[in-house]
Amino acid sequence: MIEDLRKYQAELEIQNKALRYSQQEAEGASERFATLFSSVPLALMVVDEGGLVLASNAMALRLFQPLESDPPLNFLLPFVGPEHTDEVAVAFSSARQEGTAEVNEVQFFAGTKGTFTGDLHIARIENPSDDLAHFSCAIIDQGPLLTQRHALLESAAVLRQRNEDLLLSENRMAAIINSSLDAILCIDDKQLITVFNPAATALFECPVEQAFGTSLGRFLPDVEKALSSGNVSAQAMLGEFTATTLSGKQIYVEISVSLERRLRTRTPFRADDPNAIALRGQPGGQGSITTIFARDLTSKKLAEAQRIALETQLRESQKMQAMGTMAGGIAHDFNNILSAILGNVDLAKQDTPRGSHALVSLEEIDKAGRRARDLVRQILTFSRNEPPKRVPLQLKEVIQETQRLVRVAIPPGVDLRVSISEGCPLVLADATQVEQALLNLCTNAILAVGQHKGSVTIELGTTELSLPFNDRIGVPPGRYVTLRVRDTGSGMAQETIERIFEPFFTTRQVGQGTGLGLAVVHGIMQTHQGGIDVQSAPGQGSVFTLYFPATGAKPLPTVEPEPVQVVEGRGKHVMYVDDDQALVFLVNRVLTRKGFKVTVFSDPHEAEAALRSQPESFDLLVTDYNMPGYSGLDLLRDAKAIRADLPVALASGYVTPEIEQQALEQGASALIYKPNDVNELCETVQRLISHHDA
Description:
Pfam families: HATPase_c (PF02518), HisKA (PF00512), PAS (PF00989), PAS_8 (PF13188), Response_reg (PF00072)
GO molecular function: ATP binding
Catalytic activity: ATP + protein L-histidine = ADP + protein N-phospho-L-histidine
Protein name: histidine kinase
Organism: Rhodoferax potami
Structural class: alpha+beta
């Protein structure tokens, strides 16, 4: 039994050693836990489910009770901000059920130092000996982290704003580029196209997809060479260049460039955005970017060409005006000379017996004088700017009348052909002027054929004119009647065609042409509001086409001409006033032979004095219009003041609508065009006296 007791005692000693060892280990662990609990850099507390703080480490005391005068940390909830109290209570309840819980960014009171923000982590501690649950609470101060977090958030907001501004700027730049009227191209350091706006697409006639990655020289080879030379500044206006479209057409553009050099490359922003890709071209790094602005000069070139054409027309108009001034200046004296020549020749022919050799000479003088008269009339027709007296007219009748005149003088080797389309509309025209224009064209065509065999064709038809042809010949679009003269002659070079309408310009030998034929045709077409077109080439003949505006007006009824009466003066007294002595002498002889009593004056003042002294002794007053110092209108006005019923005729070699209107307003009975045949003058005098007597 003693032995058993000894064994039992030994076992107790062993157990006692083990118990002491366990106690030592527990005490060591407790010390280590207390050391860790007190020195860990977290605020740690042991709290029961009633909120009582059973234990707290130094960090917890520093956070919740930084000063000795601050309230002690006995209960946790009084230190929780009111907006988080319920949330913390719910977290404790959840930890009791689930074992753990946490609440982020809880506001805690820190005594006199105010508040701080921390994350609360709760873990339930197993406590079988006590009915109240215990929790370990760790509070992580988020102050420094929140400061960094707010800084990061602010930086992120600034970065987002910058990205949005950059995107907005790029979108705005894309809108500007896409809406620009100038073609904009960007190239990289290899001179490959990375930007190609819609204006460039239209200008170079190339889709955007085909332009990207293409060399600049494909469209602007000269610009590519200029940029390759390295002599171009960062901002430069290079001037005008020739460009090539995708189809190979040559166009003119004005080029300016802007160079941007980068220290480091970058890829396009938002490379997955198709709009950004379209703006920047193919994705990839770019060491330098050159922006090229190309302005289409097509409109400018067209305007320049139109300006040159207008200047040419102005010069031609000035030439015409100078010619008209010259013609008006010489018409009076030249007409007086021709009137005296033709009148005296007619009187001489009347005094020369038949069969006389002198009669042949007088006939030749008469022919030469009439040719001179026709030349003066051509000059006056060319120089007049007033519209002719146009009436609804069928040009077929003018052609038929003119061809009879042409066939008389046509050489045997020239075949005259006439082609008239049926149903041509009427035109507003002066038949005499149209006949003169057609006769001039036919005469030129016959001279162009010369002594060789050939043909001259007169064609009448209709056509519709539209842009751009009608603008080239200077008429509005619409329906026109065409009068065409075609020949198989020698033709003309382009430099000749440019001058054929100039006054006195001719390619004929001396004595074969005056150089006024086509100038007269040009003037006639202008007064008829029509146009003229010329097509010719050396050795291929010429085609002159006159365009007359068609009209829907009806033709005027025909008026039977008055029968020609035998002139018998029967002693009627005529006063004739002209500052040209030759005409005074001629008219005196002519009217005296016809039985008139004639009183002539070369000084209008003497004529006015004679009329004032014997107003009833005169039956008719015929006065020249253009007299220096005292014109025919002045004499007409004074004569009507002296005797209102006296018939007065005004004579002039240049009768314009203004002169006619002034004469009629002053009471003139008739206007006489000089030079006329002496018989026509006598008939006019007798008609005026007869009408006055009636």
